[in-house]
Write a structure and sequence with these properties.
InterPro entries: CDP-alcohol_PTase-I, CDP-OH_P_trans, CDP-OH_PTrfase_TM_dom, CDP_ALCOHOL_P_TRANSF_CS, Phosphatidylglycerol_P_synth. It is found in: Membrane. The protein is an all-alpha fold. 72% of the residues lie in helices and 0% in strands. The protein has helices at 3-30, 36-62, 68-91, 102-124, 135-152, 158-184. Helix 2 packs antiparallel against helix 3. The two termini are 28 Å apart.
Length: 204
């Protein structure tokens, strides 16, 4: 196992640790004795996970430690950290409203389920589905992580970032739907698909 993969696994383990401390934070709110130490611990774990994402990528590129396991675990770890954070921030027990609206969590889950389901269907139909990030997806991920960080810090503009993130999530979903349709029905007249440097069309 490479060091890059070890860092990725540590990021994956940050998800249950964040869930534990943020749940304790919610319980302290319910008890009427809010303990910000849990919230700060959750924020610290979130930042550590975000930094480890850059670190494992650097290690993999610098020392050529790319591996099949790492390519699978890296996006899984990112999604786990984001989804666990959103789940906690939309459902933590609190006498006040949750820091983030539940519809945002539903939107993120729906987009990801739609994407995974679409790729699975295309592959079952023997269609080639090259995986390459699209800028709308990157922007959605960036603003989603920024939303979580702002909510953990109790910043007043966290909801504004949430709406920006939602816009990019919907834009990326539309792009994926359009691209998947073109892969499924290549004979339909439509603008050409964006290509990667290798010349292959891109779904992501």
């Amino acid at each position: 196992m490479t060091w890059a993969t070890r860092v990725t696994i540590l990021r994956l383990l940050c998800a249950p640790a964040m869930a534990a401390v943020l749940w304790q934070y919610g319980k302290s709110q319910t008890a009427g004795a809010e303990d910000d130490r849990y919230r700060i611990a959750g924020f610290s774990l979130f930042i550590a996970a975000a930094l480890s994402d850059a670190l494992d990528g650097f290690i993999a590129r610098r020392w050529r430690q790319q591996s099949a396991l790492g390519k699978v675990l890296d996006p899984v770890a990112d999604k786990m950290v984001l989804l666990v954070s959103l789940l906690c921030l939309t459902t933590i027990p609190s006498p006040q409203s949750a820091p983030l609206p539940v519809w945002f969590l539903v939107l993120v889950l729906s987009r990801d389920s739609f994407l995974v389901g679409g790729i699975a269907i295309l592959r079952l139909l023997k269609r080639e589905v090259p995986i390459h990030p699209h800028w709308t997806g990157k922007a959605a991920t960036f603003f989603s992580f920024l939303t979580v960080a702002a909510a953990l810090l109790k910043l007043p503009w966290a909801i504004a970032i949430c709406w920006i993130s939602a816009g990019f999530i919907l834009a990326s979903a539309c792009f994926y739907c359009s691209t998947g349709w073109r892969i499924l029905f290549p004979s339909v007249s439509c603008p050409p698909l964006p290509s990667s440097r290798s010349g292959r069309t891109s779904l992501l």
